[in-house]
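Q: I'm writing a short methods note and want an example of a predicted protein-small molecule complex. Could you take the sequence and the SMILES for S-adenosylmethionine and return the bound structure as tokens? Please keep the output block clean; save any remarks for afterwards.
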Amino acid sequence: MTDQAQSDQERLWRGDFGTEYIDRNAVSDEKLAALTSHWARVLRSTVGDPPKSLLEVGANIGLNLRALRRLTGAELHALEPNAKARSILERDGVLPAANIHDAIASAIPLADGAVDLAFTSGVLIHIHPDNLLASCREIHRVARRYVVCVEYFSGREEEIHYRGHDSALFKRDFGGFYLDNFPDLKLLDYGFAWKRVTGLDNLTWQVFRKG
Ligand SMILES: C[S@@+](CC[C@H](N)C(=O)[O-])C[C@H]1O[C@@H](n2cnc3c(N)ncnc32)[C@H](O)[C@@H]1O
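A: Understood, no commentary inside the block.
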């Protein structure tokens, strides 16, 4: 892992760049409706054994968690490096303050198997490839039963210049990355949230069962 790449990336999201993202991505009824349908579809393969606790790594202001709250009574946790995003999570009562963690994916302050399901949505794409394995190891470590990955897809590893920054957005087959690096993960389901019909940002998703 490169400390420089990690600290640059963390600084970017903790600072103005992260705050501007919040301002561009406010809560709306339309978004929450789209995300509620999305998560109902994503979690379909877990209905026989639903998770009782969920962690979103890189939760921002909790658009996913707000949608998930409509679908499940599971205990919710959020990990988020940006202070403004964490304050909105707390202010809006998305989840209890004690469950909002100031951290990054490569150092999750939770015990092994602390939550039934851990996921990212649009977060692995922002982690430098040198730090990706360490981040996925942490997500895998804290997830007792399920890991869910919702990210942009590319069949080859590529970097995209993002909002004037280098080293800020990377695409690859993140689901394949999990399968290649964590042999105990079994694919339960996968899909594509096509923008034209879902309103979401052409996201690919995979649901993995651990063990
Ligand atoms: C593109 S936003 C996605 C937010 C949210 N997951 C969603 O789908 O609405 C990326 C989020 O990940 C956070 N983030 C950036 N780097 C991170 C890291 N290394 N570990 C955890 N979260 C990170 C950012 O602060 C931001 O809230």
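A: Remarks, as requested: The radius of gyration is 16 Å. Residues 9, 13, 18, 21, 57-60, 63-64, 79-82, 85, 104-105, 121-123, 126-127 surround S-adenosylmethionine (CB under 6 Å).
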